[in-house]
Design a protein that fits this description.
This protein has 386 residues and is an alpha/beta fold. It has 2 domains: 198 residues, CDP-glycerol glycerophosphotransferase, N-terminal domain (Rossmann fold, 3-Layer(aba) Sandwich); 181 residues, Rossmann fold, CATH 3.40.50. Helix content is 35%, strand content 16%. The chain has 16 helices and 13 strands. 44% of the residues are buried. The model has no long low-confidence stretch (mean pLDDT 94).
Length: 386
Amino acid sequence: MTAELEQILKQFDELARITPKDSSNIVFIGEANGFFTGNVKHLFLHVVRNHPEINATFLTTHKHISRMLREAKLPVVFFPEDNSVTVLAKAHTIVVDTFNFKQSTFAPLTNYARIIQLWHGVGFKKIGLVEEQSIVTKQYNDMNLGRLYSGYDTVVSTSPFYSEEVFKKSFNAKHFVDFGYPRNDALFRLPTKESMLNCDTDAFRLVGSLKKTHKTVLYAPTFRDNVGSPFSGGLDFQKLQEFLEEKKLQLFIKTHTQSGISLTSTTPNITIYRNECDVYPFMRMIDVMMTDYSSIYMDYLLLDRPVVFYCPDYVEYITQNREFQFPYDDMTPGTKCMNQEELHAALELAAYGDDGYEEQRLALKDKAFLHHDGDSAKRIVEYIRG
C-alpha cells in the first residue's frame, strides 16, 4: 500500500465517522463492487418500486452499470465520481451479497454503517471461517478470511438449517435471520422491465420461441479455484449437439463470472447465456437445471423441477479446489453423471420422464428454505425498517 493510498483510506474513515447517518439512507453494493445482479439487485428494485420513503442508492465501480441504471432512471452513483463518497459516508445501512466491498478503496466509508449481508448461495461447500482450516483452499488464508467474514450486523439466511449449520459457523455477525433470498422472488413472478435489466434478452427471446417445440436445459457450472475448468471433463460438443437436436432439447450455458466458454463449432442447440448477466428471471422458463458443484440448483428447487449433476472431475474438485461441508450425495437430489453417455441419458430422462428424485428434491427444499414464496425482499425491508 502506498503512502498516498493509506492517507486516502484514513481520510475516508474519518469522514465516515463524523458524518451523521440518516436512517432512510440505504446504499446497495452488488457483487464485484457493483454488478447489477443477484440478491442486491432484486432487493434494490423492490425498495425503489415499493418504498419511496427510503432513500435508496445503488453504488457501482463499473461505468456500464452506472450508464444502464441512469438510462433506466434508477438512483445510482459511480465511485469514485459523482457524489459517491458523500453518499457512502451518509449511509445508515449498506446492503451487500459478497465481501468484495471490504477489499475496495471505499471500504473505510462503510465502517460506521449497519451492514446487511445477503450472501449469494446456500450449497454444501465450506465457506468463511470454516474454510480457514481447509488445506485445499489454503491460498485463501492470505485473504484474511476472519476480516472478510466479520463485522456484519445481520446475515440473511434461507432457513434455520443454513443459519445454524453454515452461516453462524462461517460469519461473525450480531444477527442471523431466515428471510430468504430476494433473487428467488423472481422465480415466482413474471419479469418486469426493471428486473430484466442486465439480463440476456437474446436468450429470453429464444427460449420463448422454443416453448412449444423443445424442452430447455440450463447448464450453470461453478468456477475452479485452482485446477481444471467446468469443461475439462472432456465434453464433446459436437456429439452433444447431435444428441440435443435428436431429442429436441435446447441447452443454455451460463458460466460463473470468473470463468467462460466459447464454441468454435456450429451448435444451434447450444446457446451461451452471457455470464455477467442476471439469470434468475430466466430460470423460471427452464425445464431442467444442470450443474456440477454450484449452489444455483438449490434455488431452482423452489420450482420443483429436475436437476442433473455433471461431475466427471469430482475427485479433482474436492482434493484440489474446494472442500465440502456436507456429503455431496446428501445434498444433490438428482442423477450424478461421470461421463457424457451418462449425461445424455440423464438429460433425456429428466426432460421427458421421471428421474425418481422428486421426494428428495422436496425434502431438501424444505430443509433449505423456510419460505416457499416470492416475498423475501418484503421480509428483509420490514426488518431493515425495524
